[in-house]
Amino acid sequence: MKMRIFFAAAATFFCLLLFLSYSNHFDNGFQFDDHHTIVNNIHIRDISNIYSFFTNTESYGTNPDNRTYNPILVTLNAVDYWIGGGLKPRVFHISIFASYIVLGALLYFFFKKIFDLALADRWNSWFALFSVAFFMQHAANAETINYIIMRSDSFSTLMIVASFVLYFDQKARRFRLHYFTFLLGLGTKDTGFIFAPLLAVYILLFEEKMPLWGPLLPRGNFSKTASFIKKSAPILIVSVFIFYLKRTLFNQGSPLPSGSEGASRAFLYFVTQWQVIAHYIGNFILPVHLSVDKDFVLVSSMWEKKTLLSLFLLLFLAAAAVFTSRKQKIRPISFGIVWFFFALAPTSSFIPFGQIANDHRTFFPYIGLVMALGWFIALKIIKVRDSASANKMAISAITAACLAIVGLHAFGTYQRNIVWGSEELLWGDAAVKSPDNARVQLNYGLALMEKGKYDLAFLHYNKALTMSPRWSYVHINMAILKNVMGQSEEAEQHFKTALANHLMNPNAYYYYAVFLKKKSRLLEALELVRRGMKVSPNYAGFHALHQELLHAAAATVSELLAYERELDKNPKKEDYISLSLSYYKAGEYKRCISVCEKVLLLEPDSVVAYNNICSAYNAMAEWDKAREACGKALAINPDYELARNNLRVAVEGSAGGGK
Questions:
Q1: What is the reported pLDDT for 219?
Q2: What SS3 class is residue 268?
Q3: Taking the CB of residue 183, how many other CB atoms lie within 10 A of it?
């Protein structure tokens, strides 16, 4: 009984420590890719769009180059937007942290199960608890928990661990409940696929009790091999099938580059990943080189000294995985190492990614390393405890060291949260650690420009241009800076270069249009916005700017009709309401009514739509229809003053003998 109370107290302490270490992160803002997936993404602003998340990859974000089919991720963002009533980072962070807590709870049961299968020891609960505490407090995880759109990593990992926990339960396994969480993980991020091969390894090591090479030696293992295939094949087949569907139906993914040049790049990317993975292992041991964006570049040859040393480290780990798969007692170490490599496979293989390395990618893989290290330490403690000359001091020293490490990580997490607290701190930190990364220089320059430090911003923009002279985002921000500094001609040239280099970048259209609007070149700006809306219809800024320009440019009826046709492709009641006002001001009262009727199809109880219909009928002196429309508006909201006034006009017009 005392031991249970002590255990509960320890678990409570670790929970409180976790809350304390993350207590300063809840107000951290949107960063980096958060802007095109959340901030500027008009789709997540209406919870009724959930169906479209599963049918249209455009809902993922405003950047056509970065769209993927991850409907569960988009749904999570939409739900948080709906709960918060807008773009409130605190709501997103609370949601993400809540799922992180659930992950920690499930990890305890996961680690406990794996440890018990290896060796049923009375201290396994403690070993599992310490392992969970170490993972949850690991400072590298702060890169994922602070980066809102990287809930894709944390939530897909939660679903993978949940799938294992459900698989462990016989009743849940019988009803295939682990398939449900598996599919949720797949819908959040492609790494969800990794559950299938990981489950196969688990079955091989712990259910069929074979080493990793067991299926390759069928003599004497035929029945076990057959059982292994029977158990693991279904989930692997489902995984491959869904992977195929995502790539074909939604044209998603980064296929292998074609041609000899592409194949060479794919190979060099793979070789570069040896250094990247070695860096990840270094951060696992001592996370002092964490950065929001790394400056790794493709190696020129696999024979470089650093590359070969990294390969040696990876081969050593692979050999350790094979060696420790021999005996049941040490198989959690093998499983953990395999987990680490499998979890990194989607981003560290022959398929090149635009960003060669990211520290947030280690969230899922580190569970494997924690499992391996946690069990390795557990075996050492058990050995000391059960030795003839059991040394309590040694056990206490190991325990104290483990507690100290968890505490230091908690402190490191708290410090990383501070860095993530502002763009200037975040990108300034990255500029020190990754000085040769053009994205880092650009984003640090942007943070400096927002603080009014124009000379410093110009310096970093120039560095980014030197590294990536054709990158449209650098030219956009340089143009904005030049305009602020009074160099409008140079600014416009940068805008034009940005568009010429990347016609699919919605930001290039938007900010150039804003620039032209301020220069009173309204028709040019209007045309740019329309072109931009074709590239990215769900870019939030386009809609408001388009309405402003329509009014300011005294848009013709033909222009309004063209805009209506675009809206019909992606109906939004707010945009229709604005368009109805534009028609009204242009004297097109019937079209004003027609557009309001489209609003009523989307929202049958729209007071504003009925009021605008009333206004249009008043303008046409059709008083009876006007009274009817205003009556419907007031039936919905008796206190709506505009409808009262319009109804008074209709009544007075009718009394005066009008039409």
A1: 66
A2: helix
A3: 17
**Mean pLDDT of the residues in the chain:** 91
Alpha-carbon torsion angle 25, 26, 29, 34, nearest 10 = 100
Report in angstroms the alpha-carbon separations of 275 from 282, 290, 323, 348. Answer: 10, 15, 24, 10
Distances 222 to 208, 216, 227 between C-alpha atoms, Å: 11, 10, 9
* Structural Rg of the chain based on CA atoms: 30
Q: Are 514 and 520 in contact (CB under 8 A)?
A: no
Burial of 90 (0-12, 13-18, 19+ CB in 10 A): middle
**pLDDT number for residue 659:** 40
Q: Of 601, 604, 651, 606, nearest to 626 (Cα)?
A: 651
DSSP 3-state assignment of 312? helix
Burial of 177 (0-12, 13-18, 19+ CB in 10 A): middle
- Extended beta strands in 367-496, E state: none
Residue 124 to residues 3, 108, 117, 398: CA-CA distances in angstroms? 13, 10, 10, 16
HSE, CB side, 13 Å, CA atoms: give it for residue 132: 30
Q: Is 31 helix (H, G, I), strand (E, B) or coil?
A: coil
**Is-contact 252 242, C-beta < 8 A?**
no
Evaluate whether 605 touches 632 at the Cβ level (below 8 Å): no
**Residue 39: per-residue pLDDT:** 92
* pLDDT tens-place string over residues 565-615: 878 887 888 788 888 888 888 888 999 999 999 999 999 999 999 999 999
Tell me if 31 sits within 8 A of 147, measured CB to CB: yes
* pLDDT tens string 100-116: 999 999 999 999 999 99
3-state helix, strand, coil in the chain (%, to 5): 75, 0, 25
Q: What would the two tokens of residue 186 be?
A: 């797949």
Residue 390: the pLDDT is: 65
Buried b (16+ CB within 10 A) or exposed e, 593-618: bbbbebbbeeeeebbbbbbbbbbbbb
Instruction: Mention the CATH class of domain 555-659.
Output: mainly alpha
The CA dihedral of 563, 564, 568, 574, to the nearest 10 degrees, is 90
Q: What is the model's pLDDT at position 657?
A: 47
Q: Give the integer Cα–Cα distance in Å for 603 and 591.
A: 18
Per-residue pLDDT reduced to its tens digit, 478-512: 999 999 999 999 999 999 999 999 999 999 999 99
- In this structure, are residues 482 and 490 in contact, taking their beta carbons and an 8 Å threshold? yes
Amino acid at 326: R
N- to C-terminal Cα separation, the chain: 89
CA distance 201 to 76: 31
Tokens of 426: 């975040």
Take residue 77 and report the two structure tokens written for it.
Answer: 């963002």
Phi, psi torsion values for 539, nearest 5 degrees: -75, 115
Q: Report yes or no: 7 and 129 within 8 Å, Cβ to Cβ.
A: yes
Question: What average pLDDT does range 370-389 have in this prediction?
Answer: 90
Residue ranges covered by each domain of the chain:
2-30+87-418, 555-659
What pLDDT, on the 0 to 100 scale, is given for residue 658? Answer: 43
> Can you tell me the mean pLDDT for 56-68?
84
